[in-house]
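tool_call: predict_structure(chain=1)
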Amino acid sequence: MAGGWTRDGAVLDQIDDTITDGVMTARARMPAGEGASHCVECGDEIPEGRRRALPSARTCVHCQSGRDSRIVISGINRRGSKDSQLR
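tool_result:
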């Protein structure tokens, strides 16, 4: 049930779009191409288990954790209220 000027199912469409955007963003951040045996940042050897799980890995777990903590996620504001638009 939608309210106001929206049609029925509009809220579900917004939720679906938000999930799709999240999946596309995650896929875009995944490394692609040839992997490395040693980390491109610190030079330590990338563990065999990580290379098997993610063949295109180019960083060790420690360096990748640092990279992941710096990711800033900015998305589209799909809320309908004016207050959410002002943030």
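agent: The chain has a mean pLDDT of 80. Proceeding to next step.
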